[in-house]
Amino acid sequence: MDMGFRHPGSGGALTVRSLYGRRESCYGSPGREVDVIAVAATETRQEMGRVLAEAIGQDPAVNELWVSENYDGLYFWLVAGPLDDEDELRLYGLYDLLDERFPGIDYQLHVLNERHYPNGARPGVLHGADRVPLRAS
Amino acid sequence: MDPRTVNHLRTGQRNRDLARALLAQPGLAPTPWEWVAVVAFYAAVHYVNAYLWEAARIAPVNHTQRRARVNATRAIRRCRHSYDRLQTAGYQARYDEEFALAEHVAGRLVTVELRAVEAAVMAALRLPAPTW
Question: ipTM above 0.85?
């Protein structure tokens, strides 16, 4: 994986490429590189999850939201439905919101429509994903 | 048109025809509907690759990058949600053993979503619209 580390010189800016594609700049010692990436990646992941959860709001069509990481970025999983075609496409409109708010971040959004899962859609969520709270229960 | 573009279009059309052929086979056992989704998605991948290569000499290295290009490219952006749907169905069909598509849903992925991607790419390349 290309982490994009670049050391322009002692005391200069350290440019790092986060796990999700966003370029971050900071100052610090090389020993903090991993921490910088981890913090940037975690913040991005949390913020995108929060924005998505807020957008979904009280939408009764969406039952659960999960987030995981893959080699090519963040994966958001919406467990929803059962949905008809129109509602499923409507949920893909959430891509537009995230694209606008988080340009340059590598991610995918998967709508797991209960309609296509005889035993429930949750097994479709990638193993190891974290659940994002959607609404106060 | 660049030879690589032509190759992508040819592969996209081949995958599309394979998906349609699977849909046209009554009584296949086991049912191939999830594989229709996979083949249809890879048809879409090649159509998108054809446009990106011809227009900008871009060859995405993964699905996330390709999808981002679909969204960011005005000429084909209108097909983005059809592409999204194909991508998820293709992903789930490949990796999730619980995923099960009904025949009519698989058919819609081809006749509606894949057609939308193909039409957008052909229009962007100033080629004739699909007539199938």
Answer: no
